[in-house]
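Appendix B. Extra example for self-study. Work through it before the problem class; the solution is given directly after the inputs so you can check yourself.
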Amino acid sequence: SSHEHKVNFKKSKEACLSYIQDAMLRKQWKRAAEFLTFYVESLEKDYSREPIGPSEMIWRIGTEILCHHSHSSMKEFNCFMEQMKTLGVKRYLKVCLEHVFHLLCNGQIDEAYQNLSLAESWRFGEQTAIQDREMKLIQAYRGLLDYCSWAKQKNILLEHGPDGFADLSVEQEMHSYFRKAAVNLKEIIKIPGVWDLFVKCYVDLLEFYGDHNEACQVLNEYAYNSKFPANPNAHVYLYQFLKRQGESKKSLISALKILHDIVPSHELMIDFNTMLQKSKKRKKRRLGLEVIFAALDYAGWKENIRAWSCLARQVKQIVISEKHLDWIKQEWNSRKDWWPAFHFSRYLAKRNWQENKSLSYEKALVAGILLGKDCKYFKYVSHQGCKARVKRFRMLKKFVNRHSPVYPRISG
Amino acid sequence: RDFNERCAQCSEVNWGLTDGGRYYCRSCHNVTERTREIVNTDFMTNSRVQRISKGSRKQEKTDRVCEWYVCEGFQLVLKKQAEALEALGVCPQMKDEVLYNFWRCYLQKSKQAYCNRPAGETVKAVSVCESSTDGDSEPERSSLLHLLSLSESEGDLQTDCSFASSMSKVSESTSVYSGSVDGSLYLMKNQKEKLRMTMPMTLSFCYMSLLWLREPITLSELLRFVVEGHIPYLNVFQHFPEKMKLCGLDLKIFCVESWPVYEEVYNKMLELAAFLDLPRFPDITDSCFLHPDMLCIKYLMEANLPDELHNWTCRVVKKIGIGEVDFLTLVPGNKSTRKVKYDILAAAVIVVVLKLLFLLDDHYEWLLSDLAEERNKNNKEDGLYFEFKKWYGVVKHSLDVEQKKLDEERAKYLWRCEKPLFYSVKNKSKVLKRRQMVVNLQNQFGKLSGSLRRAEKPNPSSFQLSWSEENTDGSCFHGHSLKGILQEKCGLLTAMNPDYWLCTVKLCNEKLCGHLAHYREVDFPQSYHFVLRLFSFLLRIQPSYIHDEVCMIEHKLFNKKLYRKLKYNTVLRK
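Solution. Structure tokens for the complete assembly:
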């Protein structure tokens, strides 16, 4: 407890603020609101020397309370936000943006659009230039909403079909939304940043109107411009686009390369490995092996049958050809200490066999090669499989036994 | 002089005149109700007095604004405060005579009124000639600017720095800077010699009057009533008449943003009493409320301690002579005697008594308590022995609850009021807009608060903690007996506790470091700290002030022993 001797305005408001914060942490919204009523008179006092003034505090705290309080309504929220907008000119656009986000989260798209348009037309001396970034964001979000409207119109058109009455006004509206959206989206993605949503929408627009060059350029910029923060999604978007365009395997592979570096556990690694495995170039096949091993290092992939089947296929192919066993050796070297416990324990053998026979099949193949035919996993699964008289397990057992001399060369 | 009646108390005819204008007997200091009509020719020659009383006539033509002086404002404040005190039960003399006369005397002595050449007039002349030469106006302006930019510890009332720029024009009259005529002068000159009036000082006036009348309100109570809103202080300017426009520098004078501090009000009171050349105050005798014997009864009750302890407090008081009339009565201007803070003194006496009986070293008191508990278990009919442990549990619980309430109350203070404050017409609209927004937000979030709007201020009460003997849960300790901790020696009851530890071996020089001792919680036993905390809460002051008094009392009590030995210290600290 604070036995504050000299109780003055500043100290009592500080105390009030700490009570508000305490109540908020405990989700006691009524109590927080109560103390806020006593805090708001701070607005009447000058705090220009403090880093965060009462107006900002009240804005943020009030927003939180109104979001969570059971009795608060959107109407009240809107009313509150309007007041907050008048409180600090330096923060005006930021407040507008956050207001818009809340409206969007509550499904009030039209109100959000209105607010965005209003904010766009705001001018205030030198503040306009200072708050340029926020303005760009506002324009970008308006562009986004324009895109949504465009998409809606597009769907209406497509529903009616090519032979149906193409409502001219709908089409015209669609085009006008396109123009509005494109202009704003294009602007924002010029600025280094993470603009996944904007990029996707913009590319969608460009593709629809057939401007593939522009789309390709945009995506390349987004993925490869070093000024932009490293963003795995950028590469994914580029890859997906190239795929849609039917580009060559070569360009697809190069698009996924950086993704592998950034996010080795990405789900596209399977596609990547598949493409690499089939490649004629040795280097690429080598990379494929690396990719699939790296993916399976992650716990999320432990039971991914596709991944295991990729690895099994490639391992099998290498073993049969008896070429490049050293590749397996290299990959296995850093994993032989922990993969056995991670993937090939007896417990997992039992579980995999019970839950997913195909998974256990693929894994058993890999285990049999990497750990030899005497390893727990292979023994258990192949035994179970043969007991159950499943043909492929018998084939598997034969295969591994035949190639068992490979094991010492790998595990070396 | 022409009053020849015999004194009712001592039958002498030896009359003097108090500054309040009442006759008092020089032999026995009995103050009468008889007043003498004060005829002072000075009044007639002072046109300014007339202005104060009638208000300015010429302003009717414009916007119902009158010229008013800062001291008029303070006079209104004092009037309101006195009325509030009267409503609390203080005798009407306080307002009509004592306070009023003190105030008039102050005005006279500070040459603001009731005298030949009020200070204001000279100022006016200065400002007029200053404005004519640009060169001279610079230092004037810059010092005013400096004043405004200095934020006093209460926090500054500037709502924006544009005010400073609005002062760039030095106009003929000083009213640009303030609603009052002499607002700027008031703040500017070093008025130390003349004891410039401030808001906290209004409480010094009140307290001084209460003390003169020996009313049963201590300074800590007075200040508590102020904080609780029973005595106007915060935003009292709301009650100024419409035509007294308050703006600009007036805000710095009349708007407070902090609660008055005991020390400040008290010291100002002493300064004031000396400044007014007041004689010795009416005697504080042992039948007065402010006498430590009386105050101890109150505090013992409030602290839920056994009534029997009163014998002990009286013994201590008697032994060290702090119950003597000459010790207790205020003699203004006498720098040699230590001035008495009655409430803190009484509380400290109780603390010392507790130390004497219970030692409070975090061991002995619990030991005694266990013994008492044993005895109480086996013997329920003959009245209970006081158990420190039980008392501690009960009182601590209540104290924690009340302290928590108080802390929340402090976070909920509302400092601003409906009446808008603005420096100049320029930022008036901004201020009004802000005010409107504040009210809107208060309404909006008030509705979400769930509970009703804050209940009206609680009724003023002298006791913050109360304990009833009728409670069957045994939470009242007034009637408990101290038998378990006392013993008889040579026909006298003494404490079983043979030891005592001094709070400090050497007292500091109060004038140099402001305190007699320096209190740090970690240096002392927890029981001692608890007891200090209890009284600290009741009196709304820092524990260190009570600690100071305790040190003072201890040094008086053990004076001889201290004198003899260089180190008397049977400190039982951990």
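Self-check: The radius of gyration of chain B is 28 Å. If your reasoning did not lead you there, revisit section 3.
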